[in-house]
Amino acid sequence: MSSRSQSVAPRRRRGEDLPAEGGPTRTRRERLRSIFDLLISLSASDLRLRHGRGPWVVVRWLLEPFALVGVYLVLLVAVLDRPGTAPGLSLACAIVPFQFVMSSVTYSMTAVSLRRPIIANMAFNRTLIPLSTAFTECAGFVASFAIIILMMAIYGIAPTAALLWLPAVIAVTIVFGVSLAYPASLFGLWFWELRPLGSSLVRILFFIGPGLVPLAQTGSGTSGYLKLNPLSGLFESFRSVFAYGRAPAAWQLLIPLGFAAVLLAAFLPLYRRDQREFAKVI
Amino acid sequence: MITAHEVGISFRFDRQRRVVTRSAARIRRAGPTIWGLRDLSFSLEPGEGVALLGRSGSGKTTLLRLLGGVYSPDAGTLAVRGNVACLLSTDAGLLPLLTGRENALHLSVLAGLTRAQARAALDSIKERSDLGDYFERPVSSFSQGMRARLGLAVQDERNTDILLLDEVHEALDHEFRQKLEERAHDLLAHGGIVVAAGHDHPMLRRLCTRALYLRDGRLQAEGSFDEIQRTYLDELHLEE
Lengths: 282, 240
Description:
The structure holds 2 protein chains of 2 kinds. Chain A is mainly α. Chain A contains 13 helices and 1 strand; from the N terminus they run βααααααααααααα. Helices cover 69% and strands 1% of the residues of chain A. In chain A, helix 3 (87-108) runs antiparallel to helix 6 and helix 3 runs antiparallel to helix 7 (145-155). The longest helix of chain A has 25 residues, at 55-79. By secondary structure, chain B is an alpha/beta fold. Chain B has a domain at 98-158. Chain B has a 6-stranded mixed beta sheet, with helices on both faces. In chain B, strands 1, 2, 3 and 5 form a 4-stranded antiparallel beta sheet that branches. In chain B, strand 1 and strand 2 (19-20) form a beta hairpin. The two termini of chain B are 37 Å apart. Chains A and B meet through strand 1, helix 1, helix 5, helix 8 and helix 12 of A and strand 2, helix 1, strand 5 and helix 3 of B. Strand 1 of chain A pairs antiparallel with strand 5 (75-81) of chain B, so a sheet runs across the interface.
């Protein structure tokens, strides 16, 4: 039997951390299991709601990065005349993590309103909503690795031992995407009329980082500033692992992680406080 | 058991008259704050069926959402002991693009079952909802009554101590309404609590012995169902 006691400043808030069944008698393991099951369930429903079902979803995930890399490749090689080394692979190494971050932010802005029916009818752990949105986008993120593999084959670049760093690089990318999902969810609720601007801000980060041109091809003065962009670390860490065959530099992982820590420290408590009122707002 | 002491729920608006959260109200240009419920104190004991009476906009749905944990109180204290099953709208939390089966799995996990338990319960939910082949179709193709039946079947899968009904029963067909009444009476007989709001007074009378009369978000009167119904209808006629 669950028990709930609420006041203006409750010790434990309903819909935030209260299991629907079992209450205080639940063990830590059971609570973690419950959170995991809820996360999987929210992600699975999100996947079907946003992306539909059937083979065309996978086709879309596979082709979308190709379209972007194709456009930027034409821009880089034909218009800007800055092909560099293996430009297709270099672009893919930026596009793959960027697409994940971008879709995590874009979909998080509507994550709460999309779940209006359940938020308005049931009490559940709403803190998991942005996390589940980022997890949903992991499916497309994983599928988009196909373009990197193809580009490596096209340019004849063999995989090296640096690939052992890939799990760490992927983990940092996901943590960064999750950390943006919380402020993005709040932004989407607070400034619903500015949602398109939110997406544009992330797109700007791509262009003021080494998205099109690798950091090695930029001037030494500029590259110092570009490193401060958290997306630079993600792009360059992918290039290190796939294109350059070396371990990522510490800054490539630590700067995005640092940003993620700051964002989570600032926005997670704010989100947890605000989620009590989501049912009123949506 | 449910105990409320001077409970209040407020809604903050911005200048565009949209409801906003407390944080958003600080950032955006704040508008008025309206209390949906104010100074509500009452206690509901095990085995009680309680009807919420009042005109539309009097705070019945807000109170049910508060009891269901959908809202948190902005003032006062609220203690709810027991597992709560909510049927607060005919949508019952269903996501229209998902099939009946997918929704049943999703809602069961949200209601507190593990995924393994939820999967094991799917056949039983399908049978009790009496949806047949519709169970495999998107909920967007369901009628309101079918949605309510699925919602009720999912909620029934858990051990429920408190059942909250908000006019949902009014969308159900005769046969399923009968099932809902039987379910509610069974819960009451086992020491559960039923709180129901709606305008179908004959059904509310069959389920509830007590009533709370809400007016403008405040508790106007409480007592036996017949007494409160008379008070409510008398005031309604006077106003007309």
